[in-house]
Amino acid sequence: xxxxxxxxxxxxxxxxxxxxxxxxxxxxxxxxxxxxxxxxxxxxxxxxxxxxxxxxxxxxxxxxxxxxxxxxxxxxxxxxxxxxxxxxxxxxxxxxxxxxxxxxxxxxxxxxxxxxxxxxxxxxxxxxxxxxxxxxxxxxxxxxxxxxxxxxxxxxxxxxxxxxxxxxxxxxxxxxxxxxxxxxxxxxxxxxxxxxxxxxxxxxxxxxxxxxxxxxxxxxxxxxxxxxxxxxxxxxxxxxxxxxxxxxxxxxxxxxxxxxxxxxxxxxxxxxxxxxxxxxxxxxx
Length: 285
Ligand code: GUN
Fold this sequence. Notes:
- The chain has 10 helices and 11 strands.
- The chain is an alpha/beta fold and 285 residues long.
- The protein has a 6-stranded parallel beta sheet with strand order 1-11-8-7-5-6. The chain has a 3-stranded parallel beta sheet with strand order 3-2-4, sandwiched between helices. It has a two-stranded antiparallel sheet with strand order 9-10.
- A hairpin with a 5-residue loop joins strand 9 (233-234) and strand 10 (240-241).
Protein backbone atom coordinates (compact mmCIF):
# COMPACT_ATOMS: atom_id res chain seq x y z
CA UNK A 1 0.00 0.00 0.00
CA UNK A 2 1.20 3.52 -0.72
CA UNK A 3 -0.40 6.24 1.38
CA UNK A 4 -2.50 8.96 -0.15
CA UNK A 5 -1.38 12.51 0.65
CA UNK A 6 -3.67 14.78 2.63
CA UNK A 7 -3.25 18.11 0.87
CA UNK A 8 -3.10 20.67 3.68
CA UNK A 9 -2.53 23.56 1.30
CA UNK A 10 -5.70 22.83 -0.69
CA UNK A 11 -7.73 22.21 2.48
CA UNK A 12 -6.45 25.47 3.99
CA UNK A 13 -7.25 27.45 0.84
CA UNK A 14 -10.79 26.08 0.79
CA UNK A 15 -11.28 26.82 4.50
CA UNK A 16 -9.80 30.32 4.15
CA UNK A 17 -12.27 31.06 1.35
CA UNK A 18 -15.07 29.99 3.70
CA UNK A 19 -13.68 32.21 6.49
CA UNK A 20 -13.40 35.15 4.06
CA UNK A 21 -17.14 34.80 3.37
CA UNK A 22 -17.88 34.79 7.12
CA UNK A 23 -15.69 37.89 7.48
CA UNK A 24 -17.64 39.66 4.73
CA UNK A 25 -20.95 38.79 6.43
CA UNK A 26 -19.62 39.97 9.80
CA UNK A 27 -18.31 43.24 8.34
CA UNK A 28 -21.63 43.93 6.63
CA UNK A 29 -23.53 43.18 9.83
CA UNK A 30 -21.41 45.13 12.33
CA UNK A 31 -19.90 47.87 10.16
CA UNK A 32 -16.32 46.86 10.89
CA UNK A 33 -14.02 43.93 10.16
CA UNK A 34 -13.05 41.38 12.83
CA UNK A 35 -9.70 42.35 14.37
CA UNK A 36 -6.73 40.12 15.15
CA UNK A 37 -3.80 41.53 17.13
CA UNK A 38 -0.59 39.51 17.22
CA UNK A 39 2.14 40.38 19.71
CA UNK A 40 5.74 39.40 19.06
CA UNK A 41 8.38 40.02 21.72
CA UNK A 42 11.97 39.91 20.45
CA UNK A 43 13.39 38.78 17.14
CA UNK A 44 13.29 34.99 17.05
CA UNK A 45 13.67 34.34 13.28
CA UNK A 46 11.07 31.54 13.08
CA UNK A 47 8.56 33.57 15.13
CA UNK A 48 9.12 36.57 12.87
CA UNK A 49 8.20 34.47 9.83
CA UNK A 50 5.17 32.89 11.55
CA UNK A 51 3.76 36.19 12.82
CA UNK A 52 4.22 37.91 9.46
CA UNK A 53 2.41 35.01 7.76
CA UNK A 54 -0.45 35.36 10.27
CA UNK A 55 -0.68 39.11 9.58
CA UNK A 56 -0.69 38.56 5.80
CA UNK A 57 -3.28 35.77 5.96
CA UNK A 58 -5.56 37.93 8.11
CA UNK A 59 -5.42 40.78 5.58
CA UNK A 60 -6.20 38.39 2.71
CA UNK A 61 -9.32 37.16 4.50
CA UNK A 62 -10.52 40.73 5.11
CA UNK A 63 -9.61 40.66 8.81
CA UNK A 64 -8.01 43.77 10.33
CA UNK A 65 -4.69 42.27 11.36
CA UNK A 66 -2.00 44.07 13.31
CA UNK A 67 1.41 42.84 14.34
CA UNK A 68 2.74 44.53 17.50
CA UNK A 69 6.51 44.15 17.71
CA UNK A 70 7.98 44.72 21.17
CA UNK A 71 11.69 44.69 22.01
CA UNK A 72 13.41 41.59 23.47
CA UNK A 73 14.01 43.40 26.79
CA UNK A 74 10.31 44.22 27.34
CA UNK A 75 9.54 43.47 31.00
CA UNK A 76 6.83 41.02 32.01
CA UNK A 77 4.96 43.91 33.65
CA UNK A 78 5.08 45.95 30.44
CA UNK A 79 3.84 43.00 28.38
CA UNK A 80 0.98 42.33 30.83
CA UNK A 81 0.02 46.02 30.60
CA UNK A 82 0.14 45.80 26.80
CA UNK A 83 -2.19 42.77 26.86
CA UNK A 84 -4.55 44.63 29.24
CA UNK A 85 -4.82 47.47 26.73
CA UNK A 86 -5.69 45.02 23.94
CA UNK A 87 -8.24 43.37 26.26
CA UNK A 88 -9.88 46.76 26.82
CA UNK A 89 -9.85 47.80 23.14
CA UNK A 90 -13.27 47.09 21.68
CA UNK A 91 -11.91 46.84 18.10
CA UNK A 92 -9.71 43.90 19.12
CA UNK A 93 -11.49 40.54 18.82
CA UNK A 94 -8.51 38.18 18.88
CA UNK A 95 -5.21 38.42 20.76
CA UNK A 96 -2.27 36.11 20.09
CA UNK A 97 1.04 36.46 21.92
CA UNK A 98 3.59 34.49 19.94
CA UNK A 99 5.51 31.82 21.85
CA UNK A 100 8.23 31.20 22.86
CA UNK A 101 8.67 34.35 24.94
CA UNK A 102 12.05 35.60 26.19
CA UNK A 103 13.24 33.68 29.28
CA UNK A 104 12.52 36.50 31.74
CA UNK A 105 8.78 36.38 30.94
CA UNK A 106 6.42 33.70 32.24
CA UNK A 107 4.29 32.41 29.35
CA UNK A 108 1.69 31.20 31.88
CA UNK A 109 1.34 34.69 33.37
CA UNK A 110 0.82 36.17 29.89
CA UNK A 111 -1.66 33.48 28.80
CA UNK A 112 -3.62 34.00 32.03
CA UNK A 113 -3.78 37.75 31.32
CA UNK A 114 -5.47 37.42 27.90
CA UNK A 115 -9.26 37.86 28.07
CA UNK A 116 -10.65 34.32 27.47
CA UNK A 117 -13.16 35.72 24.93
CA UNK A 118 -10.24 37.09 22.85
CA UNK A 119 -7.91 34.11 23.33
CA UNK A 120 -7.79 32.90 19.71
CA UNK A 121 -4.95 30.50 20.62
CA UNK A 122 -7.28 28.71 23.04
CA UNK A 123 -4.46 28.51 25.60
CA UNK A 124 -6.17 30.28 28.54
CA UNK A 125 -7.12 27.85 31.36
CA UNK A 126 -10.76 28.92 30.88
CA UNK A 127 -10.68 27.70 27.26
CA UNK A 128 -8.69 24.54 28.02
CA UNK A 129 -11.22 23.80 30.78
CA UNK A 130 -14.16 24.33 28.44
CA UNK A 131 -12.54 22.00 25.89
CA UNK A 132 -11.92 19.24 28.42
CA UNK A 133 -15.50 19.44 29.71
CA UNK A 134 -16.96 19.38 26.18
CA UNK A 135 -18.32 22.92 26.29
CA UNK A 136 -18.01 25.51 23.52
CA UNK A 137 -14.95 27.75 23.71
CA UNK A 138 -11.94 28.78 21.66
CA UNK A 139 -9.97 25.71 20.54
CA UNK A 140 -6.20 25.72 19.82
CA UNK A 141 -5.53 26.22 16.11
CA UNK A 142 -3.12 23.38 15.32
CA UNK A 143 -5.28 20.58 16.78
CA UNK A 144 -8.35 22.11 15.11
CA UNK A 145 -6.46 22.05 11.82
CA UNK A 146 -5.47 18.40 12.39
CA UNK A 147 -9.13 17.46 12.97
CA UNK A 148 -10.04 19.21 9.73
CA UNK A 149 -7.39 17.18 7.87
CA UNK A 150 -8.55 13.91 9.43
CA UNK A 151 -12.09 14.79 8.31
CA UNK A 152 -10.81 15.05 4.72
CA UNK A 153 -10.05 11.32 4.80
CA UNK A 154 -13.63 10.50 5.86
CA UNK A 155 -12.25 8.15 8.52
CA UNK A 156 -14.77 6.99 11.13
CA UNK A 157 -13.42 8.18 14.48
CA UNK A 158 -16.06 6.57 16.68
CA UNK A 159 -14.39 3.62 18.37
CA UNK A 160 -11.14 4.08 16.44
CA UNK A 161 -7.86 3.98 18.36
CA UNK A 162 -6.15 7.36 18.12
CA UNK A 163 -2.60 7.68 19.42
CA UNK A 164 -1.26 11.18 20.01
CA UNK A 165 2.52 11.28 20.38
CA UNK A 166 3.41 14.42 22.35
CA UNK A 167 1.75 15.94 25.41
CA UNK A 168 2.22 19.67 24.94
CA UNK A 169 -0.45 22.17 25.96
CA UNK A 170 -0.36 23.61 22.42
CA UNK A 171 -0.94 20.39 20.49
CA UNK A 172 -0.90 17.01 22.25
CA UNK A 173 -3.36 17.59 25.10
CA UNK A 174 -6.01 19.56 23.14
CA UNK A 175 -5.64 17.12 20.22
CA UNK A 176 -6.46 14.24 22.54
CA UNK A 177 -9.54 16.11 23.82
CA UNK A 178 -10.83 16.78 20.30
CA UNK A 179 -10.40 13.13 19.29
CA UNK A 180 -12.14 12.03 22.49
CA UNK A 181 -15.03 14.38 21.72
CA UNK A 182 -15.39 12.52 18.40
CA UNK A 183 -15.65 9.25 20.35
CA UNK A 184 -12.20 7.86 19.51
CA UNK A 185 -10.36 5.75 22.08
CA UNK A 186 -7.39 7.97 22.79
CA UNK A 187 -3.90 7.19 24.04
CA UNK A 188 -1.37 9.95 24.71
CA UNK A 189 2.21 8.79 24.27
CA UNK A 190 5.39 10.73 25.01
CA UNK A 191 9.15 10.47 25.37
CA UNK A 192 8.90 8.05 28.32
CA UNK A 193 6.35 5.71 26.74
CA UNK A 194 7.62 2.12 26.64
CA UNK A 195 7.82 0.44 23.23
CA UNK A 196 6.43 3.41 21.34
CA UNK A 197 6.59 1.59 17.99
CA UNK A 198 4.38 -1.27 19.23
CA UNK A 199 1.85 1.19 20.66
CA UNK A 200 1.80 3.29 17.48
CA UNK A 201 1.21 0.14 15.43
CA UNK A 202 -2.18 -0.18 17.17
CA UNK A 203 -3.24 3.30 16.03
CA UNK A 204 -5.93 3.78 13.39
CA UNK A 205 -5.13 7.48 13.64
CA UNK A 206 -1.62 8.58 14.60
CA UNK A 207 -0.92 12.23 15.38
CA UNK A 208 2.71 13.11 16.01
CA UNK A 209 3.78 16.38 17.66
CA UNK A 210 7.14 15.97 19.37
CA UNK A 211 9.60 18.09 17.41
CA UNK A 212 12.13 15.35 16.56
CA UNK A 213 12.97 14.83 12.92
CA UNK A 214 11.92 11.47 11.47
CA UNK A 215 11.38 9.76 14.84
CA UNK A 216 8.40 7.84 13.44
CA UNK A 217 9.20 5.30 10.75
CA UNK A 218 7.61 2.40 8.87
CA UNK A 219 7.72 0.18 11.98
CA UNK A 220 5.34 2.57 13.82
CA UNK A 221 2.52 2.40 11.29
CA UNK A 222 -0.53 0.14 11.23
CA UNK A 223 -1.49 -0.75 7.64
CA UNK A 224 -4.05 1.78 6.40
CA UNK A 225 -3.59 4.23 9.32
CA UNK A 226 -4.19 7.99 9.03
CA UNK A 227 -0.92 9.73 9.93
CA UNK A 228 -0.88 13.42 10.86
CA UNK A 229 2.59 14.91 11.18
CA UNK A 230 2.65 18.15 13.17
CA UNK A 231 6.45 18.43 13.37
CA UNK A 232 8.46 21.01 11.49
CA UNK A 233 12.19 20.41 11.92
CA UNK A 234 15.08 21.89 10.01
CA UNK A 235 17.83 19.40 9.10
CA UNK A 236 21.53 20.31 9.09
CA UNK A 237 21.19 20.68 5.32
CA UNK A 238 18.48 23.30 5.89
CA UNK A 239 15.60 21.13 4.68
CA UNK A 240 12.23 21.15 6.48
CA UNK A 241 11.16 17.69 7.61
CA UNK A 242 8.45 16.37 9.89
CA UNK A 243 8.51 14.09 12.94
CA UNK A 244 7.49 11.28 10.59
CA UNK A 245 9.75 9.76 7.97
CA UNK A 246 7.10 10.37 5.30
CA UNK A 247 8.56 8.12 2.60
CA UNK A 248 9.04 5.14 4.94
CA UNK A 249 5.68 5.60 6.69
CA UNK A 250 3.89 5.89 3.34
CA UNK A 251 4.63 2.21 2.69
CA UNK A 252 2.03 1.24 5.31
CA UNK A 253 -0.16 4.28 5.99
CA UNK A 254 -3.49 4.82 4.25
CA UNK A 255 -3.26 8.60 4.47
CA UNK A 256 -0.41 10.90 5.44
CA UNK A 257 0.22 14.65 5.68
CA UNK A 258 3.33 16.01 3.95
CA UNK A 259 5.78 18.44 5.59
CA UNK A 260 5.71 21.20 4.51
CA UNK A 261 2.21 21.60 3.07
CA UNK A 262 0.27 19.55 5.63
CA UNK A 263 -0.68 20.78 9.08
CA UNK A 264 1.11 24.17 8.84
CA UNK A 265 -1.24 25.87 6.38
CA UNK A 266 -4.30 24.60 8.29
CA UNK A 267 -3.05 26.13 11.55
CA UNK A 268 -3.13 29.65 10.10
CA UNK A 269 -6.52 29.04 8.48
CA UNK A 270 -7.92 27.95 11.87
CA UNK A 271 -6.50 31.06 13.53
CA UNK A 272 -8.52 33.16 11.08
CA UNK A 273 -11.55 30.97 11.77
CA UNK A 274 -11.11 31.41 15.53
CA UNK A 275 -10.89 35.19 15.08
CA UNK A 276 -14.28 35.25 13.36
CA UNK A 277 -15.77 32.98 16.07
CA UNK A 278 -14.38 35.24 18.82
CA UNK A 279 -15.63 38.39 17.04
CA UNK A 280 -19.10 37.00 16.45
CA UNK A 281 -19.38 35.74 20.05
CA UNK A 282 -18.29 39.09 21.46
CA UNK A 283 -20.57 41.24 19.33
CA UNK A 284 -23.63 39.02 19.49
CA UNK A 285 -23.58 38.62 23.27
N1 GUN B 1 4.40 29.27 18.68
C1 GUN B 1 4.32 28.13 17.96
N2 GUN B 1 3.04 27.77 17.74
C2 GUN B 1 2.29 28.73 18.33
C3 GUN B 1 0.88 28.93 18.44
O1 GUN B 1 0.05 28.16 17.96
N3 GUN B 1 0.51 30.05 19.12
C4 GUN B 1 1.40 30.91 19.66
N4 GUN B 1 0.92 31.96 20.32
N5 GUN B 1 2.70 30.75 19.58
C5 GUN B 1 3.13 29.66 18.91
